[in-house]
Amino acid sequence: MRLDCAIIGGGPAGLNAALVLGRARRKIMLFDENKARNAVTRESHGFITRDGVKPAEFRALAHQELSKYPSITITPVKVTTIEKQGENCFVVTTEAGERYEARTVILATGLKEQLPAIPGIADYYGRSLFSCPYCDGWELRDQPLVIITDTAEHAFHMGMTVYQWSRDLMICMNGGEKLEVEQAEKLRSKGIQVFEQRIKGLTGSEGRLACVILEDGVELKRSGGFVTSTWAHTLPFADMLGCELNEHGGIAADDFGRTNIDGLYAAGDASVIIPAQLIAAAAGGSRAAMGVNTELMHADF
């Protein structure tokens, strides 16, 4: 079966790309392994009409809407390889050995994140520790918060940002870079304390943070906060296909998702990386779908 487009990844970028292409009457297949990065998240925010939606509910609603379009097929399998074979032909192979030919491909594979090596941090991530203040800052407003990071740039930027939601704020550098004197003084002038020591551990219950314990025994009573992670692509397709990367490590793409490989598009967190928001990823999927449809339209007309 020859597809107009194979979409790899069933998050908001892939789902919205499928919707736009399905409505354009393109024959597409959405490959969804269902291993979302936000699986630990209980609610997603910042998406108008869906503010506070549970990720599983969002996905179910999207699948229900896509089911109206007969040219969309959703396949719940893992893609293992993607090969480009000549012009206008990609061969997508699944874990089960099934092979599909597609004229174009959209990579909407998202990201995986590596949390700092702090004992127990995963127990709190997605419940009281988060990565994006725009997504979860409102729920933590006016609480005693902590920012956990190890780079000066992130510390200062996050300090300024999170200050909008809470003035009771501490920054833990976890033994990482030291802030510039001017940055440290600016933060202190706003009442934001900075601790350079490594973090020994965290305490709390049922995912609710209560205390950050530093290696010198100092205890910081905090009820939540934000943590900076390192990001990596979930699957090796960018390397496999020879994609160029942008300054943040995402797949370099233009405003309509076009990569440096003809017929290959990228959308969502896999391309943008920052900001990693539900609505931004969905918008990227829509733009990539328009790019794909335009390419196919010119090829066929």
Automatic annotation (TrEMBL):
Residues 4-282 form the FAD/NAD(P)-binding domain. SUPFAM superfamilies: FAD/NAD(P)-binding domain. Keywords: Flavoprotein, Oxidoreductase. Its cofactor is FAD. It comes from the Bacteria. GO terms for molecular function: oxidoreductase activity. Homodimer. This is FAD/NAD(P)-binding domain-containing protein. It comes from Paenibacillus radicis.
